[in-house]
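# nightly structure sweep
# worker-07 picked up a monomer target from the shared queue
# config: single-sequence mode, recycle default, output format = structure tokens
# input follows
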Amino acid sequence: MFNYLIAAAALGMAIVAPVHAQAITTVDGPSSSESHARDAEILRQKLATEPENADLWRRLAAAEAANGSLDKAYAAIGRATSLVPNDRDIQLARANILLWQDRLSLAGEQADKVRAVDPDYPGLAGFDSAFARRQAEVSKFEPLSFSAVLGTSDIVFENGRHQNWQNAVVAVAFGNAERTIFELDADAERRTATDVRLSGRASTRIRNGSFYLGAGVTPNANFRDQWRLVAGGQILVTPDLRGTADLRLAKYNSGMSASIEPGISYMAAQGVTLSARMINLVDGDGDYRIGAAARANYEFANGHILFASAARYPDREADVTKQLRSFAVGGTINLASQWRLRLSASDEKREDSYHSQSVNLGLTYRFLQP
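# output follows
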């Protein structure tokens, strides 16, 4: 929200030329989301009776931007532009909103239209400085985090035999936190034999969500897939609801398997996120199986997180597909500004195979201050 408040101040400067100095008086005042929401509502009421008033649409854009609603701000400034297409105040205000939406090319083109008429127009220098900063931010490529996880599982097979399995994961993330993040990890699990999966994944932010692509390979696989391809993402449906999807294709010794996992994620209250997904698997034998998973997250004001999950779904390992029932609880704690500790415990029952109780401990170092 702080960024949007700065943005609102800049937008106020952009849309207030000397001849329009009185235009933004209703959106000046305390910098709070509540006050900007009230301002926007007042302006919408005025526009109900004065829909052709471009100045009101411009002021509404400022209020919506200050309230963090950039899509609404863009729609409002678009309406103002349609009413007075040659107004340089409105053109520059539109350039600023495009900039905050990370639509840099369009923002630059819009500002250049103003520059072509008056290269010294008030607000252009401020826009150029903000544009240069944003370009630098989105072009950075740097290390982001390093993490390590250790886990142990107590296994009881159907015949009563006991085993202990161990797993370890080392992962690094790098790229640009504002745009695209690359992750590499090595995931080893030791049973009676040991499998090591090497994976990579790229996640990219888009205007209303994100998507990812990834791949992994397990050399000389014993119980894991030989290789896998993954793709998926999430998209904002409403301010509190996101749609999610995950697609996977894997090669085992006996053949291929594919899964499709559509889902939703809902912010039920401040800090509370509920998510659910359906798991559809077609295994190497051509059999179709279905399952589901659900999870609840609670994030405290200090950034600590608690979670709980439950699932029942078809799981394939060692070339055999079985239904797996799983429960898990855990959380993350911010030890310091750049260190995060994660602890989780799970209870899993694989149909006609084994019962597993596991504990995992992880530590993450973030190179950038959160």
